[in-house]
From TrEMBL:
InterPro entries membership: FkbM_mtfrase (IPR006342), SAM-dependent_MTase (IPR052514), SAM-dependent_MTases_sf (IPR029063)
Protein's name according to its UniProt entry: Methyltransferase FkbM domain-containing protein
Organism field: Rotaria magnacalcarata
Signal peptide: none
Pfam family for this entry, one: Methyltransf_21
Boundaries of every Methyltransferase FkbM domain copy: 7-157
Length: 201
């Protein structure tokens, strides 16, 4: 909703948890932005069209479910969700002729699936700016390492979103921030723009 109110004409929202999907659908209808928003009811994973169970991460936080294990299909259970790979978004991207994008990702220590399954998307469109939750996934070394390799191989620089200073310490466990901005080389000015926008809210 923030993206559409800021003037974005193409917003792709990926959400797996049914109560959240219903809230987003209702918000889209209320704000009359059906033409701007594509809502994809899936969980980002390393395989498409399998089913996963969710488990609560933070008690009484509707947005904090974590992916758990592969299970059998059960459409009536909101804690069983269908999956997709990030590259599965390519048909929507092509249909809408999206040439560049920014990404916000917060999926409770599953952010590495964006990197593992999104090579084609990142190769085909310009994505200068990725906002990613970092505090939890940096504790899972194998996942954090894969994220770091993915972005560094594509000339992204990690920035602290509170200071807009690049993280120069090679040990990401020392990055004392809840979130991280991955910003492509030569696009560092986007950090200050985002900081100004947040402060104006």
């Amino acid at each position: 909703m923030y993206a559409t109110s800021s003037g974005c004409q193409n917003v792709i929202a990926v959400e797996c948890f049914l109560p959240n999907i219903e809230r987003i659908r209702r918000a889209i209808q209320i704000e009359k932005v059906q033409q701007q928003v594509v809502l994809v009811p899936r969980a980002l994973y390393n395989k498409s069209n399998v089913y996963l169970s969710l488990r609560e991460n933070i008690e009484k936080n509707i947005g904090s479910q974590r992916l758990n294990a592969e299970v059998n299909k059960n459409e009536k259970d909101p804690f069983i969700v269908q999956t997709m790979r990030f590259d599965d978004l390519l048909p929507v991207i092509r249909e809408r002729n999206i040439q560049q994008a920014i990404i916000k990702i917060d999926i409770e220590t599953s952010e590495h699936y964006l990197c593992e399954t999104g090579e084609k998307v990142f190769n085909q469109i310009n994505i200068p700016f990725v906002m990613m939750e970092w505090a939890n996934i940096k504790k899972i070394t194998v996942r954090a390492d894969s994220i770091l390799r993915f972005f560094r191989n594509r000339s992204y620089i990690p920035f602290n979103p509170e200071t807009c200073q690049s993280e120069i310490d090679n040990d990401y466990r020392h990055w004392l921030t809840q979130d991280i901005f991955w910003i492509k080389k030569n696009y560092s000015h986007l950090c200050m723009l985002s900081l100004k926008n947040v402060k104006s809210l």
